[in-house]
Amino acid sequence: MTMRLEDARVVSQEPVPGGYYRLRLYAPTVSPQVRPGQFVHVRLPAPADALLRRPFSVYRTEGPDLEILYKPVGRGTRAMTELCPGVRLNLLGPLGNGFPRPSVDHIPLLVAGGYGMAALYLLARESPVRGAVLVGGATSHDILCVPEFERMGWEVRIATEDGSLGHRGLVTDLLDAWGAAPQNSKPPELFACGPHGMLQAVAERAIRNDWTAWLSMDRAMCCGVGACLTCVQKIRDPASPDGWAWVRICREGPVLEARQVVWE
Ligand SMILES: Cc1cc2nc3c(=O)[nH]c(=O)nc-3n(C[C@H](O)[C@H](O)[C@H](O)COP(=O)(O)OP(=O)(O)OC[C@H]3O[C@@H](n4cnc5c(N)ncnc54)[C@H](O)[C@@H]3O)c2cc1C
Ligand code: FES
Questions:
Q1: Quick one: average pLDDT of 10-39?
Q2: Rounded to the nearest whole angstrom, what is the distance from the C-alpha of residue 249 to the centroid of ligand 2?
Q3: Is the CB of 164 under 6 A from ligand 2?
Q4: Can you say how many angstroms the Cα of residue 238 is from the centroid of all Cα atoms in its chain?
Q5: Which of 30, 240, 241, 242 is found 20 to 30 A from 113 (Cα to Cα)?
Q6: The listed CATH number (2.10.240, 2.40.360, 1.10.760, 2.60.40) that belongs to domain 219-264
Q7: Which atom of ligand 2 lies nearest, measured to the CA of 250?
Q8: Is domain 99-217 given the CATH code 3.40.50.80 in the classification?
Q9: 230 lines ligand 2 (CB under 6 A)
Q10: Residue 41: predicted pLDDT
Q11: Given ligand 2 and candidates 56, 228, 247, which is best to mutate, with the most ligand atoms within 8 Å of its CB?
Q12: Mean pLDDT of 119-135
């Protein structure tokens, strides 16, 4: 892993429907190194009590620029909405293992909830084979980036809990429908990013159907580089006497295969 520290410069920031913001940063050292599913750890300049870094998936890269798609949920992310062009922002990255390259022997199924679409964009762009994106949210406002994925040749299927867009229900209903009516002789390979409950439900289905599923796990983080153990996750480990072990989501993750994860 080639991890760099860089004072990135804010190029632009704009609100996106659904309460999200798209932040574009000039980061010529970090941006070209980013692989799909990796993240950056961002130190925010203000407020003074938000000194810890915050992890964000890299949504898009374009030469020296990278973009983050984020939702203000607390002190740090609310302060981010105030960032103006020209401001410097210290980045640590790229971090994490990222997604493996999709297998050409499978149909890639990208499963997303919330900012999960952001974490899957680079994978969709760089995948050697196109497949389908299954995206879910509470309402139509939570469904992000659909035109971007369609422009890249991916079929997008949508589920909203209130039925305001696409299927009324959960994204896992779309996955169940896929399993019940396979469109192709190739088996699916799943790549998922979203809330904890969604990932667990995806993992259960993958194991039941004997599908491979790569899950990008969401964990609160402090150091982001494997030192503080804030982000540990229990995994199955046949080599250990107890049959399980801890991994650090910031270092050995954030992407784990569904069969590895012990859900608690
Ligand atoms: C690998 C990784 C990639 C991520 N990518 C993105 C992204 O692309 N876009 C995006 O909007 N967010 C992303 N997140 C989540 C983001 O890091 C948190 O929303 C952010 O750290 C919250 O900071 P805050 O200071 O605003 O909130 P705080 O004041 O620290 O907390 C406010 C609320 O948010 C909750 N919270 C804090 N951290 C997380 C978290 N990791 N997941 C869920 N809830 C959390 C807290 O429990 C609390 O309820 C990612 C997280 C990880 C681990
Ligand atoms: S955040 Fe410190 S070990 Fe992962």
A1: 96
A2: 7
A3: no
A4: 28
A5: 30
A6: 2.10.240
A7: 4
A8: yes
A9: yes
A10: 96
A11: 228
A12: 97
CA of 76 to the centre of ligand 1 (A): 9
pLDDT single digits (tens) 92-108: 999 999 999 999 999 99
- Superfamily for the 4-95 domain: Translation factors (2.40.30.10)
Q: At what angle do helices 196-209 and 171-180 cross, to 10 degrees?
A: 10
- Positive or negative, the Cα torsion across 252, 24, 62, 73? positive
Question: What is the pLDDT at residue 182?
Answer: 64
- For 133, what's the count of Cα atoms within 13 Å in the CB-facing half-sphere? 31
Structure tokens at 1: 């892993």
pLDDT in tens, 51-67: 679 999 999 999 999 99
Q: Region 122-136: what's the mean pLDDT?
A: 97
Residue 118 DSSP label: H
**Side chain identity at 234, as an amino acid letter?**
K
| Ligand with minimal distance to 54 CA | 1
Amino acid in position 240: S
Would the CB of 178 count as within 6 Å of ligand 1? no
Q: Is 138 in the pocket of ligand 2 (CB under 6 A)?
A: no
Pocket flag, ligand 1, residue 115 (CB < 6 Å): yes
Determine if the pTM surpasses 0.85. yes
Could you count the other beta carbons within 10 Å of the beta carbon of residue 257?
Answer: 15
Question: Residue for token digits 């980061």?
Answer: 27
**Ligand found nearest the CA of 96:** 1
Report CA(55)–ligand 1 centroid distance (Å). 7
Q: Which ligand is nearest to the CA of 249?
A: 2
